[in-house]
Amino acid sequence: MASTVSFTEYNGAGSTATASRAEMNLKNIDDSTTVYSSSPITAGNNSFGKYQAAVHAGTYNQLSAASYKISSNAPGTGLSIVGSVVTSYTTPATTATGDSAMSTTGLTANFNTSTTPFGTGTSTYTTSGTVYVNALRLQLQSTTSAVPGDTTSQTITYGWTES
Amino acid sequence: MPHIEAKFEDGFVLNEKKQNDVSIYDDRRNTFYDILNKLCEVDHGKMISFTLVLKDLGYDNLIIDWTEVPDNAKPIRYKSYEIDTNNGQIINEQRLVKIGFGYEYFDKSLGKNVQKVQVIS
Lengths: 163, 121
What we know:
Distance between the termini of chain B: 13 Å
Distance between the termini of chain A: 13 Å
Order of helices and strands of chain A: EEEEEEEEEE
Largest interface: A-B, 31 and 31 residues
Shape of chain B: globular
Structural class of chain A: mainly beta
Strand order of the largest sheet of chain B: 2-1-3-4
Largest sheet of chain B: 4 strands, antiparallel
Radius of gyration of chain A: 16 Å
Oligomer: heterodimer
CATH topology of chain A: Immunoglobulin-like
CATH architecture of chain A: Sandwich
Helix content of chain A: under 10%
C-alpha cells in the first residue's frame, strides 16, 4: 500500500475544500470547476491565487522532507509565477499575493494535521493515517507585454521522503 | 519495485511486497514499522537478516547480516518520491527517486550515532 498522495484545493471566503484535484491551472476565477480557458487572465492582470495542498494517506512509518517546486517561474514574455508555502489562508484574489518567484529548487513544507494544511505543522510526521501538508499558493502575474494564448506548460513537483 | 525483507530466527520471513506494505500488527502502518519496532521478534525470535530485494530489477539483493551488526543497531530504509503536474494536469503516479538502506548504531567510543547507509537513485 505505502503512502498515497492526492491534492486538495481551497476556494472562497470559507476555504471550501475540494479533494482529489486533477489539475492545477491558474485562471481568472476562484473556483475548482471552471476550465481555465473559460476564465483567461488578460495581459496586465494576475490570476486568482490558487491554494492546493498535498494529502498523504495509506501506510507509512514516518513522512519527512516535503517540498514543492516548479520547472520554470518565467513561462513567457511578461509572465511570472510566484508562490509560497503557506500556514494560513486568505480569500484568493487577483491582487498580488506578495510572494516571491516560485522556487525552481524547492520550498520546504511541513506536515500539519489530519484535517487541514493550515497551521505550522512539523517537518517530520509519525502519527499514522491521513495528514495534510502545508498548502502551496501560486499566482500567475502578467504585464501588458504578455502575449495572448496559453502559456508554455510548467511542471509543479511535490516531493517527500517516507520510511 | 525494490522492497524489503526481514528474516527471523525461527525461519519466518517478513516480505514487504507480500504484505502489500501493510503492518501485520497495525493496518495504518507499513512493513518497515514492524521491522523497526521489532514487532515480529516476540513470536519469531531475533531478526537475523535485513534485505533490500533488487533481484526483480536484475540486480543483486543488498543483504545485511543482522547477527553481525552492533546490538543497538536500528534498520534504516527510506524512499524519496516525487509527483508531477503535466500540462496543468496532476499526474497521480508517484515517481521513486531514491532509496536509502542500511542501519545506524550508537558508537560508544565516538559518542555519537553512526549510519551505514547505501543510497540508490
